[in-house]
Amino acid sequence: MNVHIIYATMTKHTKKLADYLADSLKITAQDVEDKPNLVNTDVLFVGSGIYGGKISPNLENYIKSIKVGDVKKAVIFLNSCGGKDESKELRGLLEEKKIKVYDKTFICKGKWLLFNRKHPNEEDCMDLVDFSKKALSEI
After folding, report:
1. How many other CB atoms sit within 10 Å of the CB of residue 60?
2. Fewer CB near the terminus (10 Å): N or C of the chain?
């Protein structure tokens, strides 16, 4: 199975989550700014922080550049100060590319100013790995 992890981050929190997941899957997480090649991807893990209720503009632009047929399935992981599910926009962008999106989204709290100062933490990272293993078995 050809699995990739991409992420966009402004605060390095999503990178922390993506790298932890990548280590567990023995692959490399890739920042969308590096324009990773996703041709023939079976499962794509897509990570973003949430900024003012929206995904990273860099991630949005990158997803729009993916060719239909390059990626079969996707799993979304997010972090935000509020810890709310803000995946609707990202899910829609992926589905426009004919990518089947896992019906559950991983969400953890992320630090913002003085809020959630210790997140994402080790437990959040381990929860993402557990979530991802389940997603891979179900998707």
Report:
1. 16
2. N
Domain 3-125 bears CATH identifier 3.40.190.80: no
Q: Phi and psi (nearest 5°) for 85?
A: -75, 105
Cα separation, 114 vs 101, whole angstroms: 33
Nearest C-alpha neighbor of 16 from the set 138, 136, 126: 126
CA dist 110 → 5, 27, 71, 113, 117 (Å)? 19, 24, 28, 10, 8
- The Cα 59–Cα 8 span in angstroms is 6
For every one of its 139 residues, what pLDDT tens digit does the chain have, with 9 covering 90 and above?
999 999 998 778 899 999 999 999 999 999 999 999 999 999 999 999 887 778 889 999 999 999 999 999 999 999 876 555 677 899 999 999 999 999 999 988 655 444 445 657 788 889 999 999 999 999 8
Using CA atoms, how far residue 76 sits from 13, 46, 113, 117, 130, in Å, is: 15, 5, 25, 23, 14
User: What are the boundaries of each domain within the chain?
Assistant: 3-125
